[in-house]
Amino acid sequence: MKKIVVFGGGTGLSCILSGLKLFPLDVTTVIAVSDNGSSTGVLKEELNIPAVGDIGKVLLSMANADSDYIDLMSYRFSKEGTLHNHPVRNIILAALIDTKGSLLEATKYMAKLLEVKGTVLPITEEKVELVGEGDRESFIGEESVSANIKKIKNLHYDHDVKVCNEVTERIKEADLIIFSPGSLYTSVLPHLLAKEVTDALKSAKAPLMYISNLVTQPGETDGYNVQEHIDVLNKYLDGRKIDVVIANNGEVDDKIQKKYLDTEGKTIVSPVGIKDVEIIEDDIFSIEEERIRHDALKTAYLVFSYMMNK
């Protein structure tokens, strides 16, 4: 069975994984733990633990457990009080860190509970913060970094991190390494801020694939096309380059494009001008309640077809 390693975080990654789990592939997902927003940020500070939010989301996207159990894990407390806005999955992961002794073991145990197909690994078990360096000031924390990208010249962690051994082992064994869609600077690039990861990628035999975002992210990638996303990734890959990109060439309805621009300041990410990489273009989006999403099945099929033809 072909082995894939996927780096990413957030909704884009979860969508891609929900499609990949339908194919005969050995998928390892690596998750950054530098988030500091919402429920994740509160638990991170109060309990002095790594961020658990994206790990929980990914575990659910790859879960094959009973739907009622998955719904329970997804439940977010809405009443005002100590538990307000905390999803059940985050609280359970935080408890498992205590009872199992580490984030890695907590993740593995929750994967068993959810009958996850594949492997989910945190990039590190340390509590870390994302730091953006500007000309005159530093921006500490994912939320601050995201809000100040235009002022930032370079990203790093607040300290050198020890990468989980299984992460570098899976990179060496991989037949394909994927960088998923998602927040470019705060969900995808954090994986490339750990030297152990970039060193492993340099020696990896597997091609590097980028599945492009469908729309830009205000404040982070305003006006970016696919090539500009690739250029940023290549900068932080430290010697490696993206080998192949999956990009959308389907036409989004003008009404939906206008709504995205007017209400959220987002534009469609154009595939025009891609160069120096193998390009897989297709109509890979779907519309759900006037929201643009990757078509999980179709995108995963393109990944699977690429693998089978290699």
What value does the Rg take, in angstroms? 19 Å
Strand order of the biggest β-sheet = 3-2-1-7-8-9-10
What fold name goes in the CATH topology slot of the largest domain? Rossmann fold
Low-confidence spans: none
What does the average pLDDT come to? 93
Counted by DSSP, the helix tally is 13
Question: Top keywords for this entry?
Answer:
Rossmann fold, seven-stranded parallel β-sheet, globular, 12 strands, alpha/beta, three-stranded antiparallel β-sheet, single chain, 3 domains, 310 residues
Describe this structure in words.
- It is a single chain.
- With 310 residues, the chain is of the alpha/beta class.
- The chain has 3 domains: 1-32 and 165-310, Rossmann fold; 36-121, no CATH class; 127-160, no CATH class.
- Helices cover 41% and strands 18% of the residues.
- The chain has helices at 10-20, 38-47, 53-61, 67-74, 88-100, 103-113, 142-147, 165-173, 184-188, 195-203, 226-237, 254-264, 296-308, and strands at 3-8, 26-31, 119-122, 130-134, 138-140, 152-157, 176-179, 208-211, 244-248, 278-282, 285-288, 291-294.
- The strands form 3 sheets. It has a 7-stranded parallel beta sheet, with helices on both faces. Strands 5-4-6 form a 3-stranded antiparallel beta sheet.
- Helix 1 runs parallel beside helix 3, helix 1 packs across helix 13 (296-308) and helix 5 packs across helix 6 (103-113).
- It is globular.
- The relative contact order is 0.15.
